[in-house]
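Structure ticket #2291
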Amino acid sequence: MNLAKVSANGQVTVPVDIRRKLRLKEGDKLLFIERDGEIIINNASATAIVRAQDAFAGADRDFGVANDEDVQGLVDEVRYGAERQS
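Resolution: structure written out below.
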């Protein structure tokens, strides 16, 4: 268990063990989630990445992407296709 003290300004120093577990670095933002009466603290950037990965799950199959070359082909198609239409 880790303990932190709230300053008069509402600031809290996150204990070093927790910072390491959340992979927090200076400037990172914390996400506070209330669930079943408890507050869960997450690294906001890491949470956003996981949500984006979840949102795109299966997209590789939908677009026929199997490797880096396929990704580059899609990027080129969007990039150069837009230039041709201009």
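Closing remark: The mean pLDDT is 86.
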